[in-house]
Amino acid sequence: KQEVTQIPAALSVPEGENLVLNCSFTDSAIYNLQWFRQDPGKGLTSLLLIQSSQREQTSGRLNASLDKSSGRSTLYIAASQPGDSATYLCAVYNYGQNFVFGPGTRLSVLP
Amino acid sequence: DVKVTQSSRYLVKRTGEKVFLECVQDMDHENMFWYRQDPGLGLRLIYFSYDVKMKEKGDIPEGYSVSREKKERFSLILESASTNQTSMYLCASKGQDYTEAFFGQGTRLTVV
After folding, report:
1. Nearest CB neighbour to A34, from listed B4, B50, B100
2. pLDDT 10s digit of each residue in chain B, 112 long?
3. Is A59 on the interface with B (CB under 8 A)?
């Protein structure tokens, strides 16, 4: 059964820092991996989608990498801002047509 | 823009009531999902549907049922609401295999 973990569980950084969030999964039989952002009390907003055949995707200050063979993905946030404060979740979409989510990393960027 | 719309942001219901949570998507997606999210437990899959009238149980289907009579609409039904079903409910929509998933804004359900 697919399991997804995220490290760290929580992170607090001063504004302007570059930071890395980590996601690991146990079964490499995936179509893709998606990173989401969730603000308190809200739904999930899609940030980046990486296909299983891809190594990297970029959107603005965000860069996500995928190493399917080792079951790892990282989300890199450059020059962090207070508005980046949120919970970040990764999810893998399995061949069994199901999403499996990690528990999330709660990020706080201090002004 | 892809839109996934959940019928209510906040809902308060009494124990024993039958509760309907509605989700509508406008992108002709085949797959739709219902999750609940609780502190410390993350997102847990209740049911998903990969086509009209098709449904599959997720990890925690007990106490819930679903209906998908039209492609764009996926309903979650609490047959007899209980206090342990107080939670945030999230609906998601996705096309085939390699496509991106999108979520609704969530419904905060409180059962009293």
Report:
1. B100
2. 668 999 999 999 999 999 999 999 999 999 999 999 999 888 999 999 999 999 999 999 999 999 999 999 999 999 999 999 999 999 999 988 788 999 999 999 999 9
3. no
Contact yes or no for B48 and A103 at CB 8 A: no
Is B33 within 8 Å of chain A by CB? Answer: yes
Contact B42, A9 (CB under 8 A): no
Per-residue CA distances from A16 to A9, A80, B90 (Å): 20, 5, 32
Shortest Cα–Cα distance, B97 to chain A (Å): 6
* Residues facing A48 on adjacent strands: A35
Cβ atoms of B52 and B95 closer than 8 Å: no
Output the six-digit token pair for B3: 């839109």
Please, are residues B35 and B46 in contact by the beta-carbon 8 Å criterion?
Answer: yes
What amino acid is encoded at B79 in this protein?
E
- The residues in A 62-101 lying below 8 A from B, measured between CB atoms, are 89, 91, 93, 97-99, 101
Structure tokens at A106: 């709660």
